[in-house]
Amino acid sequence: MATAAPQAGGALLIDRAALADNYRALAAQAAPAETAAVVKADGYGLGIAEVAPVLWRAGCRTFFVALAEEGAALRKLLRTARIFVLSGPLPGSVAALRQHELMPVLNELEQIAAWRATGAPAALHVDTGMSRLGLDVSAQALLLAEPARADNLKIALVMSHLACSEEAGHTMNAEQLARFQAVRERLAPVIGRPPASLANSCGIILGRDYALDMVRAGIALYGSEPSGAVPGRFRAVARLFGRVVQLRDVDPGTSVGYGATHRVAVAARLATVAIGYADGYPRSLSNRGIGFFGETPLPLVGRVSMDLTIFDASAAPKLRPGDWIELIGDHLPVDAVAARAGTISYEVLTRLGSRLARIGFGES
Length: 364
Ligand SMILES: *Cc1c(COP(=O)(O)O)cnc(C)c1O
Fold this sequence. Notes:
This protein is of the alpha/beta class. The protein has 11 helices and 18 strands. The strands form 3 sheets. Strands 1, 10, 13, 14, 15, 16, 17 and 18 form an 8-stranded mixed sheet that branches. An 8-stranded parallel sheet has the order 8-7-6-5-4-3-2-9. The structure holds pyridoxal-5'-phosphate.
Protein backbone atom coordinates (compact mmCIF):
# COMPACT_ATOMS: atom_id res chain seq x y z
CA MET A 1 0.00 0.00 0.00
CA ALA A 2 2.82 2.36 0.87
CA THR A 3 4.22 1.86 -2.62
CA ALA A 4 0.78 2.23 -4.27
CA ALA A 5 -0.03 5.40 -2.33
CA PRO A 6 3.26 6.77 -1.01
CA GLN A 7 1.90 10.27 -0.34
CA ALA A 8 -1.58 9.40 0.92
CA GLY A 9 -2.63 9.73 4.53
CA GLY A 10 -5.57 7.45 3.98
CA ALA A 11 -6.16 4.63 1.54
CA LEU A 12 -9.38 2.94 0.50
CA LEU A 13 -8.78 -0.52 -0.88
CA ILE A 14 -11.50 -2.00 -3.06
CA ASP A 15 -11.60 -5.79 -3.20
CA ARG A 16 -12.78 -6.43 -6.77
CA ALA A 17 -13.19 -10.16 -6.28
CA ALA A 18 -15.40 -9.60 -3.21
CA LEU A 19 -17.54 -7.09 -5.13
CA ALA A 20 -17.99 -9.52 -8.03
CA ASP A 21 -18.79 -12.35 -5.60
CA ASN A 22 -21.41 -10.24 -3.84
CA TYR A 23 -23.00 -9.40 -7.21
CA ARG A 24 -23.11 -13.05 -8.19
CA ALA A 25 -24.52 -14.11 -4.80
CA LEU A 26 -27.32 -11.55 -5.02
CA ALA A 27 -28.02 -12.43 -8.66
CA ALA A 28 -28.28 -16.12 -7.74
CA GLN A 29 -30.71 -15.28 -4.96
CA ALA A 30 -32.86 -13.06 -7.19
CA ALA A 31 -32.82 -15.27 -10.30
CA PRO A 32 -34.67 -15.54 -12.61
CA ALA A 33 -35.16 -11.81 -11.94
CA GLU A 34 -32.46 -9.56 -13.39
CA THR A 35 -30.09 -8.02 -10.84
CA ALA A 36 -29.34 -4.36 -11.49
CA ALA A 37 -26.63 -2.50 -9.57
CA VAL A 38 -27.19 0.81 -7.81
CA VAL A 39 -24.03 2.92 -8.13
CA LYS A 40 -25.30 6.34 -7.06
CA ALA A 41 -23.16 8.65 -4.89
CA ASP A 42 -19.97 7.62 -6.69
CA GLY A 43 -20.59 3.92 -6.24
CA TYR A 44 -21.59 4.32 -2.56
CA GLY A 45 -18.39 6.26 -1.98
CA LEU A 46 -16.08 3.54 -3.26
CA GLY A 47 -15.50 5.24 -6.63
CA ILE A 48 -17.74 4.57 -9.62
CA ALA A 49 -14.75 4.16 -11.96
CA GLU A 50 -13.53 1.35 -9.71
CA VAL A 51 -16.81 -0.47 -9.09
CA ALA A 52 -18.82 -0.15 -12.32
CA PRO A 53 -16.44 -2.09 -14.62
CA VAL A 54 -16.13 -4.86 -12.02
CA LEU A 55 -19.92 -5.18 -11.84
CA TRP A 56 -20.14 -5.22 -15.63
CA ARG A 57 -17.61 -8.04 -15.83
CA ALA A 58 -19.59 -9.93 -13.18
CA GLY A 59 -22.56 -9.84 -15.55
CA CYS A 60 -24.48 -6.73 -14.54
CA ARG A 61 -26.08 -4.95 -17.50
CA THR A 62 -28.47 -2.47 -15.81
CA PHE A 63 -27.38 0.32 -13.47
CA PHE A 64 -29.12 2.96 -11.38
CA VAL A 65 -27.72 6.37 -10.45
CA ALA A 66 -29.38 9.28 -8.64
CA LEU A 67 -28.58 12.15 -11.02
CA ALA A 68 -28.04 12.76 -14.73
CA GLU A 69 -24.53 13.94 -13.96
CA GLU A 70 -23.71 10.59 -12.38
CA GLY A 71 -25.23 8.85 -15.38
CA ALA A 72 -23.02 10.82 -17.75
CA ALA A 73 -19.94 9.75 -15.77
CA LEU A 74 -21.10 6.13 -15.85
CA ARG A 75 -21.80 6.27 -19.58
CA LYS A 76 -18.13 7.09 -20.20
CA LEU A 77 -17.20 3.90 -18.34
CA LEU A 78 -19.86 1.58 -19.78
CA ARG A 79 -20.84 2.38 -23.37
CA THR A 80 -23.64 -0.18 -23.72
CA ALA A 81 -25.09 -0.53 -20.21
CA ARG A 82 -28.72 0.36 -19.48
CA ILE A 83 -28.58 3.32 -17.11
CA PHE A 84 -31.57 4.58 -15.13
CA VAL A 85 -31.55 7.97 -13.38
CA LEU A 86 -33.65 7.87 -10.21
CA SER A 87 -34.34 11.60 -9.88
CA GLY A 88 -35.87 11.67 -13.36
CA PRO A 89 -35.70 14.53 -15.82
CA LEU A 90 -35.11 17.53 -13.58
CA PRO A 91 -35.92 20.82 -15.33
CA GLY A 92 -33.16 21.47 -17.85
CA SER A 93 -31.71 17.96 -17.85
CA VAL A 94 -33.63 16.33 -20.74
CA ALA A 95 -30.95 17.15 -23.32
CA ALA A 96 -28.18 15.73 -21.14
CA LEU A 97 -30.19 12.56 -20.50
CA ARG A 98 -30.72 12.11 -24.24
CA GLN A 99 -27.11 12.91 -25.11
CA HIS A 100 -25.77 10.18 -22.81
CA GLU A 101 -28.59 7.72 -23.57
CA LEU A 102 -29.78 7.67 -19.99
CA MET A 103 -33.26 6.52 -19.02
CA PRO A 104 -34.91 8.72 -16.40
CA VAL A 105 -37.20 7.29 -13.77
CA LEU A 106 -40.34 9.40 -14.11
CA ASN A 107 -41.62 10.37 -10.69
CA GLU A 108 -44.52 12.71 -11.36
CA LEU A 109 -46.87 13.90 -14.10
CA GLU A 110 -44.71 16.92 -14.94
CA GLN A 111 -41.75 14.62 -15.55
CA ILE A 112 -43.90 12.42 -17.80
CA ALA A 113 -44.94 15.52 -19.74
CA ALA A 114 -41.33 16.68 -20.05
CA TRP A 115 -40.08 13.30 -21.25
CA ARG A 116 -42.71 11.78 -23.52
CA ALA A 117 -42.02 14.24 -26.36
CA THR A 118 -38.58 12.65 -26.72
CA GLY A 119 -40.12 9.30 -27.67
CA ALA A 120 -37.30 7.63 -25.71
CA PRO A 121 -37.89 4.94 -23.07
CA ALA A 122 -38.06 5.63 -19.35
CA ALA A 123 -39.00 3.95 -16.09
CA LEU A 124 -42.06 4.90 -14.06
CA HIS A 125 -41.90 5.10 -10.26
CA VAL A 126 -45.11 4.63 -8.29
CA ASP A 127 -45.18 5.41 -4.58
CA THR A 128 -46.40 2.59 -2.35
CA GLY A 129 -45.45 3.89 1.08
CA MET A 130 -42.16 5.81 1.04
CA SER A 131 -43.75 9.18 0.27
CA ARG A 132 -40.47 10.23 -1.26
CA LEU A 133 -40.47 9.69 -5.02
CA GLY A 134 -42.99 8.33 -7.48
CA LEU A 135 -46.57 8.97 -8.57
CA ASP A 136 -48.79 9.30 -5.54
CA VAL A 137 -52.37 8.00 -5.47
CA SER A 138 -53.88 11.21 -6.86
CA ALA A 139 -51.37 11.39 -9.73
CA GLN A 140 -52.09 7.74 -10.54
CA ALA A 141 -55.83 8.54 -10.64
CA LEU A 142 -55.25 11.53 -12.89
CA LEU A 143 -53.18 9.42 -15.29
CA LEU A 144 -56.00 6.86 -15.45
CA ALA A 145 -58.64 9.54 -15.95
CA GLU A 146 -56.62 11.29 -18.65
CA PRO A 147 -54.70 8.56 -20.48
CA ALA A 148 -53.63 11.07 -23.16
CA ARG A 149 -51.02 12.17 -20.61
CA ALA A 150 -49.21 8.94 -21.49
CA ASP A 151 -49.38 9.28 -25.28
CA ASN A 152 -46.03 8.32 -26.85
CA LEU A 153 -44.78 7.23 -23.44
CA LYS A 154 -42.50 4.19 -23.61
CA ILE A 155 -42.24 2.61 -20.17
CA ALA A 156 -39.39 0.11 -19.98
CA LEU A 157 -39.75 -0.54 -16.25
CA VAL A 158 -42.27 0.16 -13.52
CA MET A 159 -40.82 0.40 -10.04
CA SER A 160 -41.46 1.21 -6.41
CA HIS A 161 -39.26 1.27 -3.31
CA LEU A 162 -39.54 -0.53 0.03
CA ALA A 163 -39.45 1.55 3.20
CA CYS A 164 -38.86 -1.21 5.78
CA SER A 165 -37.05 -4.04 4.01
CA GLU A 166 -34.34 -4.07 6.68
CA GLU A 167 -36.94 -5.44 9.09
CA ALA A 168 -38.01 -8.75 7.58
CA GLY A 169 -40.98 -9.00 9.93
CA HIS A 170 -42.36 -5.51 9.26
CA THR A 171 -45.94 -5.48 7.98
CA MET A 172 -45.10 -2.66 5.53
CA ASN A 173 -43.20 -5.12 3.31
CA ALA A 174 -46.19 -7.26 2.38
CA GLU A 175 -48.43 -4.18 2.25
CA GLN A 176 -46.17 -2.43 -0.24
CA LEU A 177 -45.88 -5.54 -2.38
CA ALA A 178 -49.67 -5.88 -2.50
CA ARG A 179 -50.11 -2.17 -3.26
CA PHE A 180 -47.50 -2.34 -6.02
CA GLN A 181 -49.21 -5.32 -7.66
CA ALA A 182 -52.55 -3.53 -7.47
CA VAL A 183 -51.17 -0.33 -9.03
CA ARG A 184 -49.56 -2.32 -11.85
CA GLU A 185 -52.95 -3.88 -12.59
CA ARG A 186 -54.74 -0.55 -12.50
CA LEU A 187 -52.22 1.21 -14.72
CA ALA A 188 -51.99 -1.60 -17.29
CA PRO A 189 -54.53 0.03 -19.65
CA VAL A 190 -52.34 3.16 -19.78
CA ILE A 191 -48.74 1.90 -19.60
CA GLY A 192 -49.14 -1.76 -20.52
CA ARG A 193 -47.30 -4.43 -18.56
CA PRO A 194 -43.63 -3.49 -18.46
CA PRO A 195 -41.15 -5.43 -16.29
CA ALA A 196 -41.47 -4.54 -12.60
CA SER A 197 -38.93 -3.83 -9.85
CA LEU A 198 -39.46 -3.38 -6.11
CA ALA A 199 -36.58 -4.86 -4.12
CA ASN A 200 -33.39 -3.18 -2.89
CA SER A 201 -30.66 -5.25 -1.16
CA CYS A 202 -32.75 -6.21 1.87
CA GLY A 203 -35.76 -6.69 -0.39
CA ILE A 204 -33.80 -9.42 -2.20
CA ILE A 205 -33.21 -11.11 1.15
CA LEU A 206 -36.97 -10.97 1.88
CA GLY A 207 -37.44 -13.64 -0.76
CA ARG A 208 -38.46 -14.49 -4.30
CA ASP A 209 -41.94 -12.90 -3.96
CA TYR A 210 -40.25 -9.51 -3.86
CA ALA A 211 -37.84 -10.01 -6.75
CA LEU A 212 -40.46 -9.64 -9.53
CA ASP A 213 -38.63 -8.98 -12.84
CA MET A 214 -35.69 -6.94 -11.61
CA VAL A 215 -34.01 -6.20 -8.30
CA ARG A 216 -31.91 -3.12 -7.52
CA ALA A 217 -28.95 -4.11 -5.38
CA GLY A 218 -26.99 -1.38 -3.62
CA ILE A 219 -25.39 -1.62 -0.19
CA ALA A 220 -25.09 -5.43 -0.14
CA LEU A 221 -22.85 -5.29 -3.21
CA TYR A 222 -20.45 -3.21 -1.13
CA GLY A 223 -20.34 -5.68 1.73
CA SER A 224 -22.92 -4.45 4.21
CA GLU A 225 -25.96 -6.33 5.44
CA PRO A 226 -28.01 -3.60 7.04
CA SER A 227 -30.68 -5.91 8.41
CA GLY A 228 -27.94 -7.42 10.57
CA ALA A 229 -29.74 -10.77 10.33
CA VAL A 230 -26.70 -12.62 9.05
CA PRO A 231 -23.52 -10.63 9.81
CA GLY A 232 -20.87 -11.46 7.23
CA ARG A 233 -23.43 -12.67 4.67
CA PHE A 234 -21.69 -10.49 2.06
CA ARG A 235 -17.96 -10.18 1.60
CA ALA A 236 -16.25 -6.98 2.79
CA VAL A 237 -15.37 -4.84 -0.24
CA ALA A 238 -14.02 -1.59 1.23
CA ARG A 239 -10.99 -1.52 3.49
CA LEU A 240 -9.97 1.81 4.96
CA PHE A 241 -6.45 2.41 6.23
CA GLY A 242 -4.86 5.46 7.84
CA ARG A 243 -1.15 6.12 7.97
CA VAL A 244 0.82 6.75 11.15
CA VAL A 245 2.42 10.21 11.10
CA GLN A 246 3.90 10.41 14.58
CA LEU A 247 4.36 8.35 17.75
CA ARG A 248 4.88 9.65 21.26
CA ASP A 249 5.28 8.19 24.73
CA VAL A 250 3.19 9.99 27.34
CA ASP A 251 3.01 10.02 31.13
CA PRO A 252 -0.06 9.22 33.21
CA GLY A 253 -2.45 12.17 33.30
CA THR A 254 -1.52 13.50 29.84
CA SER A 255 -4.50 14.95 27.99
CA VAL A 256 -5.23 13.99 24.39
CA GLY A 257 -6.74 15.98 21.52
CA TYR A 258 -9.21 18.88 21.22
CA GLY A 259 -11.19 19.51 24.34
CA ALA A 260 -8.84 17.25 26.31
CA THR A 261 -11.65 14.68 26.39
CA HIS A 262 -9.25 11.84 27.14
CA ARG A 263 -6.57 11.59 29.81
CA VAL A 264 -4.21 8.61 29.81
CA ALA A 265 -4.41 6.59 33.01
CA VAL A 266 -1.06 4.86 32.79
CA ALA A 267 2.07 5.58 30.74
CA ALA A 268 1.09 5.04 27.11
CA ARG A 269 2.29 5.23 23.54
CA LEU A 270 0.10 7.29 21.22
CA ALA A 271 -0.03 7.07 17.44
CA THR A 272 -1.25 10.02 15.39
CA VAL A 273 -2.85 8.82 12.15
CA ALA A 274 -3.37 10.96 9.03
CA ILE A 275 -7.09 10.52 8.64
CA GLY A 276 -9.92 12.61 10.03
CA TYR A 277 -13.48 13.72 9.54
CA ALA A 278 -12.49 15.58 6.36
CA ASP A 279 -11.85 12.12 4.92
CA GLY A 280 -15.26 10.94 6.07
CA TYR A 281 -13.94 9.17 9.15
CA PRO A 282 -16.86 9.87 11.51
CA ARG A 283 -16.20 12.40 14.25
CA SER A 284 -18.77 10.53 16.32
CA LEU A 285 -16.10 7.82 16.74
CA SER A 286 -14.28 10.18 19.13
CA ASN A 287 -13.28 8.07 22.19
CA ARG A 288 -15.36 5.17 20.76
CA GLY A 289 -13.53 4.01 17.65
CA ILE A 290 -10.94 1.33 17.21
CA GLY A 291 -8.12 0.62 14.79
CA PHE A 292 -6.09 -2.49 14.11
CA PHE A 293 -2.37 -2.88 13.56
CA GLY A 294 -2.21 -6.39 12.21
CA GLU A 295 -4.14 -8.41 14.78
CA THR A 296 -3.69 -5.85 17.57
CA PRO A 297 -6.67 -3.62 18.46
CA LEU A 298 -5.82 0.01 19.24
CA PRO A 299 -8.45 2.16 20.99
CA LEU A 300 -9.19 5.56 19.49
CA VAL A 301 -8.47 8.21 22.13
CA GLY A 302 -9.68 11.81 22.23
CA ARG A 303 -11.60 13.53 19.48
CA VAL A 304 -11.33 12.77 15.79
CA SER A 305 -10.06 15.99 14.21
CA MET A 306 -10.16 17.20 10.61
CA ASP A 307 -7.05 15.50 9.28
CA LEU A 308 -5.82 13.44 12.21
CA THR A 309 -6.94 10.82 14.70
CA ILE A 310 -5.06 9.51 17.75
CA PHE A 311 -4.91 5.86 18.82
CA ASP A 312 -3.50 4.31 21.97
CA ALA A 313 -0.79 2.14 20.44
CA SER A 314 0.70 0.88 23.72
CA ALA A 315 -0.10 -2.69 22.66
CA ALA A 316 1.83 -2.34 19.39
CA PRO A 317 5.49 -1.63 20.25
CA LYS A 318 6.57 -2.42 16.67
CA LEU A 319 4.45 0.36 15.16
CA ARG A 320 6.48 2.94 13.19
CA PRO A 321 5.70 6.19 11.35
CA GLY A 322 4.53 5.33 7.84
CA ASP A 323 2.77 2.13 8.99
CA TRP A 324 -0.91 1.69 8.16
CA ILE A 325 -3.74 1.24 10.67
CA GLU A 326 -6.89 -0.62 9.58
CA LEU A 327 -10.03 1.43 10.26
CA ILE A 328 -12.57 -0.54 8.20
CA GLY A 329 -11.80 -4.05 6.99
CA ASP A 330 -11.60 -7.68 7.95
CA HIS A 331 -11.32 -6.89 11.67
CA LEU A 332 -13.78 -4.01 11.50
CA PRO A 333 -16.73 -4.65 9.15
CA VAL A 334 -18.39 -1.47 7.92
CA ASP A 335 -21.60 -2.42 9.76
CA ALA A 336 -19.67 -2.59 13.06
CA VAL A 337 -17.95 0.74 12.42
CA ALA A 338 -21.32 2.32 11.60
CA ALA A 339 -22.85 0.95 14.81
CA ARG A 340 -20.00 2.41 16.88
CA ALA A 341 -20.42 5.74 15.09
CA GLY A 342 -24.17 5.78 15.73
CA THR A 343 -25.08 5.70 12.05
CA ILE A 344 -25.59 3.26 9.15
CA SER A 345 -23.15 1.68 6.72
CA TYR A 346 -24.64 3.75 3.87
CA GLU A 347 -23.55 6.99 5.52
CA VAL A 348 -20.10 5.72 6.50
CA LEU A 349 -19.32 4.54 2.95
CA THR A 350 -20.79 7.43 1.00
CA ARG A 351 -18.94 10.00 3.09
CA LEU A 352 -15.51 8.55 2.38
CA GLY A 353 -13.67 11.53 1.02
CA SER A 354 -11.99 12.41 -2.23
CA ARG A 355 -8.63 12.81 -0.48
CA LEU A 356 -8.37 9.06 0.08
CA ALA A 357 -6.32 7.07 -2.42
CA ARG A 358 -8.73 4.54 -3.98
CA ILE A 359 -6.91 1.37 -4.90
CA GLY A 360 -8.57 -1.64 -6.50
CA PHE A 361 -7.00 -5.03 -5.95
CA GLY A 362 -7.69 -8.65 -6.87
CA GLU A 363 -9.21 -9.96 -10.05
CA SER A 364 -12.92 -9.97 -10.77
C1 LIG B 1 -30.55 3.55 -3.18
C2 LIG B 1 -31.69 2.80 -3.79
C3 LIG B 1 -31.65 1.41 -3.95
C4 LIG B 1 -30.55 0.56 -3.37
O1 LIG B 1 -30.83 0.32 -2.01
P1 LIG B 1 -29.87 -0.57 -1.09
O2 LIG B 1 -30.58 -0.60 0.21
O3 LIG B 1 -28.57 0.14 -1.04
O4 LIG B 1 -29.76 -1.89 -1.75
C5 LIG B 1 -32.68 0.81 -4.65
N1 LIG B 1 -33.70 1.54 -5.13
C6 LIG B 1 -33.80 2.87 -4.96
C7 LIG B 1 -34.98 3.61 -5.49
C8 LIG B 1 -32.80 3.55 -4.27
O5 LIG B 1 -32.91 4.87 -4.07
